[in-house]
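Changelog-adjacent note: as of this version, every example in the card shows the full chain rather than a window. The one below runs 331 residues end to end.
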Amino acid sequence: MTHDTRHRLRLAAVTAAGLATLVGSGGGFPPFELDPDGIGGWPASEMQPARQTVQVGTPARFVVATTHVTQPTFRWCRVPRGGSTCELIAGATGDTYTLASATLADDGALVQVTVTDPKGTTSAQGSLFVSSMPPVIYRDGDFGPETWTATTWADPASGGPSAEVSTQASGGNPGAFRQTTILVPVVPSALRIYQTSQTALYDPAAQGAIHVIDATEDCETPGASTSNAYIGTVPLLLQGGRRYVATDNWSRGCSGSSTWIAASPRAAMASSDFRLIDGPACTTGESCPNFGVDGAPIRLGFAQLIETSAAGVTGTRTRGIDNWTMTIWRR
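Full-length structure tokens:
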């Protein structure tokens, strides 16, 4: 495992821990001190979803899932964007909170619940984003070979890993799917595969500034692996000759699954949730990527990373992607 991969994994762990930290001090709620994983029988909680986006006038629903909790009581509060105080939500005393009709004033708010039972207290929070317009949704469940391109970057460039990317007519979830087969060499190596849709093109100047982006897909890693290679997938943006990938954990949601599953969704990704991975460096003060109305058209896709750190191990890894979806929420 390279230093870059270890850094990404540590960053993901820190980010996940940050989501469980209380924001604001209003209402006299106690800090989250108990074991967040419920180890040893301590209470634990998780907000579902952790991030969501809705259109103005539609409901937003948050549910708290608990572990090792008996006879719980629930207290919900809300921190507005830029605020520091969690204001108690009157009447919200169950494991579910529903905002009947979201407004733009709710955009960027944090919704937090404190769960208390005889053993102790645990907390969870979720983020709410609100769009003034309906989303633009791009889907692909067929992956026509003429509508996708694949570009690879290998390290080492000579004698390093290689990949074959194809559209399989059957065996997906259901029907056709996108398949990547990687040959892992006997040397420590890394391979990036940038897969870009030729039909999923969003133009902020014509369609409106982007607020946030959601991304989902189904995936599988069939068969027994004959190598210890790591494989991960993240959303990809191509704008103005630059490629950007989502900054969260590459392995999220699908690693090691031999059957089709729905990968953990990436929800409410802002421009700050993407990092430049290929192309000219961004200049000081430049929006990278640019989600504003002055931004260039953005082509959508996904990137895959294959990496192994152990010498003397060779073999293949296969990853299937189906029902790829990216949802563009506008301001």
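Structural remarks: The two ends are 40 Å apart (CA to CA).
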